[in-house]
Amino acid sequence: xxxxxxxxxxxxxxxxxxxxxxxxxxxxxxxxxxxxxxxxxxxxxxxxxxxxxxxxxxxxxxxxxxxxxxxxxxxxxxxxxxxxxxxxxxxxxxxxxxxxxxxxxxxxxxxxxxxxxxxxxxxxxxxxxxxxxxxxxxxxxxxxxxxxxxxxxxxxxxxxxxxxxxxxxxxxxxxxxxxxxxxxxxxxxxxxxxxxxxxxxxxxxxxxxxxxxxxxxxxxxxxxxxxxxxxxxxxxxxxxxxxxxxxxxxxxxxxxxxxxxxxxxxxxxxxxxxxxxxxxxxxxxxxxxxxxxxxxxxxxxxxxxxxxxxxxxxxxxxxxxxxxxxxxxxxxxxxxxxxxxxxxxxxxxxxxxxxxxxxxxxxxxxxxxxxxxxxxxxxxxxxxx
Length: 385
Description:
The protein is of the alpha/beta class. It folds into three domains: 8-158, Toll/interleukin-1 receptor homology (TIR) domain (Rossmann fold, 3-Layer(aba) Sandwich), CATH 3.40.50; 182-340, Rossmann fold (3-Layer(aba) Sandwich), CATH 3.40.50; 345-381, no CATH class. Helices cover 39% and strands 14% of the residues. The chain is built from 14 helices and ten strands. The chain has a five-stranded parallel beta sheet, sandwiched between helices. Strand 1 (8-13), helix 1 and strand 2 (36-38) form a beta-alpha-beta unit. The protein starts with 7 loop residues before the first strand and ends with a helix. 36% of the residues are buried. The model is unreliable at 158-162 (pLDDT under 50).
């Protein structure tokens, strides 16, 4: 690929509300001998479109500062796309060097481009990360006068929240009013803690293995035992009443309801964006995933690929079919469980808890005859109503 052309090294693109980050990143880049153009340097009386066009033509590379505000701004996206198209047509190498200054969801079409998060780093670590990004790039002019402007305040410290709401170190014993699935119970108890080694719990099982009951119990236990968590369950089997199902979903998460004019994937994308802006412990539970339809693309391309950037996010996906957890971008953030029907011993324990007098032998025979069908065994061993 040919190298980018232009008489200025970098154009730094950002949303106006993030000027503090732009000024500090600009200082780091200029201190290394590079020339830059900032949005604030556009001259009064000129048009936004002409300035973007000139920047794409005269600046060798673009440093977009990713934030929720950035992707919500039509002007910033237009600016990004103008640069993207200009340099794609010219075959330039490493023409876009994104830095993430706030946890945010990157639009699907731009998600293929790697970026470097710096918002959670200390001042020295953030500067080192930027210099790492600049490695191998030579300034347009090596004879420029040394940049001596004073360093602006580092925005990372000032923007850190005074109180951080996080997942608990551990949770109280989980309650399961049905025959137990030990592996699922233990995995979920780990998932909703700060030290969890995974952020996605995928549960795959055939019909009548108790998946839907498990997902319901996940939500119930999270609501009662993880008080700082906002959690919601979405059953794709109910998508024939999508507006009401989605309204209930966002109500439990306490985020705005997206407009009903978009596709389900578009509405999920807006919900995730609201959660990203809040950055508080959130649990999303999806059931009957084999019926996800087009939403499967959003789950794979947006939700699961962002897990490594969102320590506050936990996801449970249950169904006869679920996203693969091996050989994917989210492999290191996931745990897969294959669910079998509860053992007769579990049903026996459940029967005793409900005062049923059925014998272990009879229960074993029923379990065998029904092939462990949960709906029948639940009536036999559950509360005597």
